[in-house]
Amino acid sequence: MEFSSKLLEQAVDQMSQLPGIGRRTALRLVLHLLRQPEHQTEQLSQSLTNLRSHIIFCEQCHNISDTPVCEICSNPNRSSELICVVEDIRDVMAIEATGQFKGKYHVLGGKISPMDGVGPGELKIQSLVERVRQGEVKELILALSATMEGDTTNFYIYRQLEGTEVDISTIARGIPVGDELEYADEVTLGRSLQDRIPFESSLKRN
Amino acid sequence: MEFSSKLLEQAVDQMSQLPGIGRRTALRLVLHLLRQPEHQTEQLSQSLTNLRSHIIFCEQCHNISDTPVCEICSNPNRSSELICVVEDIRDVMAIEATGQFKGKYHVLGGKISPMDGVGPGELKIQSLVERVRQGEVKELILALSATMEGDTTNFYIYRQLEGTEVDISTIARGIPVGDELEYADEVTLGRSLQDRIPFESSLKRN
Q: Coiled-coil intervals in this record (chains A, B) (predicted)?
């Protein structure tokens, strides 16, 4: 791609470093900004710079926050006995959207993945162990992805917590609500058979 | 979507105003920036702001430029007698990439589209007419999209230039090189039959 302007080329170069944004898309986005009023570009730049320089991670759960302790961790109506362990902030948002969880979170910041150079030291596992050792936590729900990396991370956390009193559970794997059996893969279907629950208790779910 | 941080929400709001970027994608991009070193966000913001505030449009062809007259317009090896009329800068880049065009350009900034509120007054048509009236231009190649809006714009320009000496041509419509006949739509195939060229002159093309 040959550009008629160095400024344009620099903007496209920077934009195309974002994941999933190729140079053609980057050019389209940058030309869109040029057609919009100047304050729109100002606001975009400003909000990105603000976010990057002023963002705080909650010192308890490591969720993104505007305050040293996030709103969830500082909410007295949420139980500190129940902690849900997730990979990143998007998982917190997804679980919050269900309205089903009244405990607190622990955001690992990823999962153990030697292929991507992510070991246990890169994740907030040590601080999870310390949180549990303080004694308030009764149950830990491991809510990581149902992938090999997720399973590895689950197992690593489980081993680190051996000798503590905490109950460790994982979220249920099974057929998604609304799905047809015939389209489910056999591993999921197998797990949903093994982890079957009494019909009467399924009636109590909403 | 409920955010745990106002700063994050603002960044996602701004990012999702870009075309084709929904709120989920915006969140993914913003979280990616948070995981990268701070200088990457700085550079992105800086290059967008720089582009928006310092960009110049060439006073002759209206292409994006770093100088008052762009590199193409100020190149003495390019003919001022042949002008290719295009919609936007991406078309200039596409035609430059062919290496087949040795004239200069005129960037309209869009095409006439009443549905989108774009009339002739929003486009650089008047300055094209003035360029032609100055007398140096011998031929105008209309290279707009083969759509109704493109055809309308072509016709409008043609009418505006009635009474001038300039030759007006349009780029050839036909079967794309490398395509099978059976997959061509009937309008394109029809046009390629009507606009057939002597076989011997086709041999001279590369």
A: none
Interface confidence (ipTM) of the complex: 0.80
Say if residue A206's pLDDT is above 70: no
Q: Name chain B contacts of A40, Cβ cutoff 8 Å.
A: 17
For chain B, say whether A29 makes contact (Cβ under 8 Å). Answer: yes
The distance of B200 to chain A (nearest Cα, Å) reads 34
List CB contacts (< 8 A) between B2 and chain A.
Answer: 93, 96-97
Angle in degrees, 0-180, between the axes of helices B38-54 and A23-35, rounded to the nearest 10: 50
The distance of A102 to chain B (nearest Cα, Å) reads 16
Residues forming beta bridges with residue A167, ordered by sequence position: A139
Domain ranges of chain A: 6-54, 75-171
Does domain A6-54 fall under CATH 1.10.3720.10? My reply is no
**Distances A166 to A155, B105, B152, B189 between C-alpha atoms, Å:** 15, 72, 73, 73
Q: pLDDT tens digits for A18-36?
A: 999 999 999 999 999 988 8
Quickly state the pLDDT bin for B173 (edges 50, 70, 90).
confident
pLDDT at B206 over 70: no
**CATH number for the domain formed by residue range(s) B64-171:** 3.40.1360.10
pLDDT at A149: 92
**Do B72 and A33 count as a contact with CB atoms less than 8 A apart?**
no
Q: Is B117 on the interface with A (CB under 8 A)?
A: no
| pLDDT in the model for residue B137 | 93
Closest chain B residue by Cα to residue A10: B47
